[in-house]
C-alpha cells in the first residue's frame, strides 16, 4: 500500500506513548522513506527508541533519509555500541556526515566500537570538508579491472548482488592494478554486449574526474554535463563517486544556506529546535556589525540637526528614502548573486552590469521619485519640498542599484562570499548617501522649504 | 581530451568573427556540454549560427544544455524549417520548455513545420504548467508489457538501442494492454535474472506515481525517497517519467526564484540581458506597493512632529530602530520560510514558533538595545534618552521577530507565497510600531529629554 503524508503523521501521533515492541510492529512494514517521515514527526526524546526498535540494516536506511542534524541528535541518544551497529551499515558518505554532526566525544565513542578498518575508513572521509568533492563522495561504487570481459563483470554483479544492492548502478569504473581510474562504461552497455568483449573496449576513456578538494559549487557545474562524477586522489586513484542524489542534496542545502546568509544569519544552518544560545549568537554576530553601520549612517543626520530642526517634515521622509533605496538596491544584489552563481556574469563584467542597472535605476527612481515627491508637495503645499524629496529619491535609487549590482561582483573578485556582506554594505552606503543628499540640499534652500 | 572552462572561453573568443564552416570545425569535435559552454559565451547575435553549423542531432543536445531563455532566444533567430529539424530531436520535456519560452508566433511557426503527430505530442506537453509533474516529465521512457520475459526485454533493449540511447535507463516500467502502469523493475534486476523469468515476477508492484497536475514542490519531496517518478493520467495510464536530473534542475530554479521573490522581484526570472521594460516593470510592481507601505509607516512620524521638533536627536535614532528591527525580523522570516519549505514546521505550529522567536528576540533585543542606548546616552549626556531609545529597540526587536516568524506561517495558511509578501508586511508593521513606541514614549517624558 502507499502511505500519504497524513497517514504517516497519524501513525506518529499514535506512537508517541509506545514501547519498543509497538514501534517495531508499526515501523517494520514501512518503506525506509516512510519510516523516516514517522520518526521525523515523533517528539525528539523518543526518536532514538523508534530507531532502535528496527533491525540495524533498516535503521541505517531510515537514518539516511532523515535531515542530518536530526539524525545526529537521535544517534547521540543511543548507547554507543548499538549506535555503532547501525552506523556501520549506512552509506559511507552519510555515515561520515552523521559523525561530523555529532559532538566529538559522541563521535569518538561510536568510532571506538567500530572495527579498526571501519573506523579508519570513516575517519578518512570525516577528514574532507563538507562542501568539497571528498566530503560529498561515497566510497561505494562498482569497479572492475581492465583485464575483465563483459561476462566477468556480469558474474561479479550476480555474485555480489547483496553488497551492490544500494550502490549507484548506472556506471562501472575500470581501474588498473594500482587502482588508477582508466575508463568508465554504462552498466547497460556492458550487460548488453557479447560476454567475451573486454570491458576496456566498451569503456570510454575520456574521463572527467574531480579531486577531493574540488569545491562543491564547482562540482555542481559538472552535473550540468554528467550524471555521476568519480573522485580521484593526486595519483588518479579512484576514491569514490558523487552521485546525482548527492548533488541534488548539496544544491538544496546550498540554496537554503545562501538564503539564510542573505537574510543575515551567519554560520550555515539555523533550525528552531537548536539551542537558544546557538540561534541568538548566529543572528547576533551579524546584527552587531549592522548596528555599528547603522550608527555610522545615522551620524549623517546628526550633522544636519539644525537643518532638520527648521524643516521637521524632512524627518518623515528620511526613513522612506532609506527604506526604498535599500529595497531597490537589494533587488540588484539578488540579481547579481544569481547571475554570478549561474555563471551568467563574472567580476570583469563590471561596466556592463553598471550600465544595465543605471537603466533600471533611472526608470524606477523617476517613477518612485514622482510618487513620493507628489505626496510631499501635496502634504505640505510646498513644491520645493516635493522636488527635493522626489529628486533625492531618484538620485539615491540610481546610487542604490549601482552599488547593489556591483558590490557582489567586487566581493566575489576578492574571494569573499557575496551573500553575507552585500546587503549591509549596500544599506549603509545608500543610507549615508540618501541622508546627505536630502539634508545637504535642504540646507542650501532652507528659506524655500519653510 | 578534457576542456577547461578557460579553454572553452578562449575558443568562444576566437570564434566571434567566424563563418558557419569554421564553427562546424571547432564545435563538432566537442562534447555537447562543452559545445554548449562555448555557445553560451558567444555574443547573442551569432549563437544561432553556431548551432546551425552543427548536425541537427548534436545541435539538439547542445540546446538541451543551454539555459532555457538563452536557448529560446537562439532558436527564435533561426529559420522555422531549420529550427524544427533541430527541435524535433530534443528530449520531449526540453522541447516543450523551449517552445514555451518563445513568443507564440515563433513557436507556432516551428510547430507548423513538425509532422502532425510530433506537433500534437509537443502541444500536449506545452499544455502542462511548468511547475507541475506534467510540465517536468519527459515522454521518453522504457516500457514493456506484462507478458514479456526478461529475455524479451533484453532483446527489445538491443533492438532499439539507438532510440533508447538517451533515455533514463535505471528503471523499466511494466504496463498492461491499456497502457496502465502495473509495476516497475530496475534494469539491472531484469538483465541479471534468468532469461525466461516473466518480468511481472521481477517487478515491484508497490508504486508511487504522480498525477500530471502534482505541484513541483510536492513532487520534489518524493525524490527524497525515489530516484525516478512515473507520471500517470486519471486512469493510471503511464504518460511519462520525471528523472533525478529534471528534479535537480527544478530545485535549483525554484531556489533561485525564491531568492528573487524574497528580494522583491515578482514574476519569476530576471536576467540582465532581458529588456529594460521587462526588468523595470517586474521590480517596480513590488516597489510601488512598498512605497505606499512606507508612506503609511512614516505617517506615524508626522503625527509626532511636535515632539520631534523639541527633541531633534530622536530623528537620528528613528532610521536606526527601523533598520535594525527590519533586519531582526527578516532573519526570522528566512528561518520560517526555510523550515516551511523543508516541512519542519506547519502553519499550525504558530505558538511554538512564537515562543522560540520571543526567546531570541529577548536576548538579541536586549543586547542591541544596550548598545544603541549607551550610544544615545553618551552622545547627548542624557540617561533618559538612552533608556528610551534602548528600551524602544528592545521592545521593537521582540515585535519584529514575532511578526517575522509568524507572517510566513499565516501567508502559507491562506495559500499565499510567503517569499514575496513576508518582508514588506514585516517592515511596515515594525516601522509603525517602532516609530510609535519611540515618539509616543518621548512625548510622555518630554521634559526629561530636553
Short description:
The structure is a homodimer of 450-residue chains. With 450 residues, the first copy, chain A, is mostly helical. Chain A has 24 helices and six strands.
User: In total, how many domains does the architecture of chain A comprise?
Assistant: 3
Strand content of chain A: 5-15%
Shape of chain A: elongated
Radius of gyration of chain A: 30 Å
- Tell me the helix content of chain A: 55-70%
CATH topology of the largest domain in chain A: Tetracycline Repressor, domain 2
State the fourth-level CATH superfamily of the largest domain in chain A.
SLC41 divalent cation transporters, integral membrane domain
Architecture of the largest domain in chain A in CATH?
Orthogonal Bundle
By secondary-structure content and strand pairing, the structural class of chain A works out as mainly alpha
Structural notes for this entry:
2 copies of one chain form a homodimer. Chain A has 24 helices and 6 strands. With 450 residues, chain A is mainly α. Chain A has 3 domains: 5-127, MgtE N-terminal domain-like (MgtE N-terminal fold, Alpha Horseshoe); 143-243, CBS-domain (Roll), CATH 3.10.580.10; 276-449, SLC41 divalent cation transporters, integral membrane domain (Tetracycline Repressor, domain 2, Orthogonal Bundle). A 3-stranded mixed beta sheet of chain A has the order 1-2-3. In chain A, strands 4-5-6 form a 3-stranded mixed beta sheet. In chain A, strand 4, helix 16 (216-222) and strand 5 (228-232) form a beta-alpha-beta unit. In chain A, helix 3 packs across helix 5 (56-65), helix 8 (92-100) packs across helix 10 and helix 18 runs parallel beside helix 23 (418-444). The longest helix of chain A has 31 residues, at 350-380. At the A-B interface, helix 3, helix 12, helix 14, helix 17 and helix 18 of A face helix 3, helix 12, helix 14, helix 17 and helix 18 of B.
Amino acid at each position: 500500500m502507499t502511505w500519504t503524508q497524513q497517514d504517516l503523521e497519524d501513525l506518529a501521533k499514535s506512537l508517541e506513548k509506545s514501547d519498543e515492541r509497538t514501534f517495531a510492529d508499526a515501523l517494520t512494514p514501512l518503506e525506509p522513506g516512510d519510516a523516516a517521515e514517522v520518526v521525523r514527526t515523533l517528539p525528539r526524546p523518543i526518536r532514538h527508541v523508534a530507531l532502535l526498535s528496527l533491525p540495524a540494516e533498516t535503521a541505517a536506511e531510515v537514518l539516511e533519509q532523515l535531515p542530518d542534524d536530526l539524525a545526529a541528535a537521535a544517534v547521540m541518544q543511543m548507547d554507543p555500541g548499538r549506535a555503532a551497529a547501525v552506523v556501520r551499515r549506512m552509506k559511507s558518505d552519510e555515515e561520515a556526515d552523521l559523525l561530523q554532526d555529532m559532538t566529538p566525544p559522541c563521535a569518538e565513542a561510536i568510532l571506538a566500537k567500530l572495527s579498526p578498518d571501519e573506523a579508519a575508513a570513516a575517519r578518512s572521509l570525516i577528514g574532507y570538508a563538507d562542501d568539497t568533492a571528498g566530503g560529498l563522495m561515497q566510497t561505494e561504487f562498482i569497479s572492475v579491472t581492465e583485464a575483465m570481459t563483459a561476462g566477468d563483470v556480469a558474474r561479479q554483479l550476480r555474485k555480489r548482488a547483496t553488497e551492490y544492492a544500494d550502490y549507484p548502478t548506472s556506471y562501472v569504473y575500470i581501474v588498473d592494478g594500482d587502482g588508477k581510474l582508466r575508463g568508465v562504461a554504462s552498466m547497460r552497455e556492458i550487460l548488453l554486449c557479447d560476454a567475451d568483449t573486454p570491458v576496456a573496449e566498451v569503456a570510454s576513456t575520456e574521463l572527467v574526474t574531480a579531486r577531493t578538494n574540488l569545491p562543491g559549487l564547482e562540482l555542481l557545474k559538472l552535473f550540468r554535463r554528467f550524471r555521476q562524477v568519480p573522485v580521484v586522489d593526486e595519483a588518479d586513484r579512484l576514491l569514490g563517486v558523487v552521485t546525482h542524489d548527492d548533488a541534488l542534496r548539496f544544491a538544496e542545502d546550498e540554496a537554503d544556506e545562501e538564503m539564510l546568509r542573505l537574510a543575515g544569519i551567519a554560520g550555515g544552518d539555523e533550525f528552531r529546535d537548536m539551542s537558544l544560545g546557538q540561534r541568538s549568537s548566529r543572528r547576533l554576530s551579524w546584527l552587531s556589525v549592522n548596528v555599528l553601520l547603522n550608527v555610522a549612517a545615522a551620524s549623517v543626520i546628526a550633522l544636519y540637526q539644525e537643518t532638520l530642526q527648521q524643516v521637521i517634515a524632512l524627518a518623515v521622509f528620511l526613513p522612506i528614502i532609506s527604506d526604498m533605496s535599500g529595497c531597490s538596491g537589494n533587488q540588484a544584489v539578488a540579481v547579481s548573486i544569481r547571475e554570478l552563481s549561474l555563471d551568467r556574469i563574472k567580476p570583469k563584467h563590471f561596466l556592463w552590469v553598471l550600465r544595465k542597472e543605471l537603466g533600471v535605476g533611472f526608470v524606477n527612481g523617476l517613477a518612485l521619485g514622482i510618487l513620493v515627491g507628489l505626496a510631499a508637495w501635496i502634504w505640505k503645499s510646498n513644491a520645493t519640498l516635493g522636488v527635493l524629496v522626489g529628486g533625492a529619491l531618484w538620485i539615491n535609487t540610481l546610487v542604490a542599484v549601482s552599488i547593489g549590482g556591483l558590490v557582489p561582483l567586487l566581493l566575489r573578485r576578492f574571494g569573499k562570499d557575496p551573500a553575507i556582506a552585500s546587503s549591509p554594505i549596500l544599506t549603509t552606503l545608500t543610507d549615508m548617501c540618501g541622508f546627505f543628499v536630502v539634508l545637504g540640499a535642504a540646507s542650501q534652500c532652507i528659506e524655500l522649504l519653510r
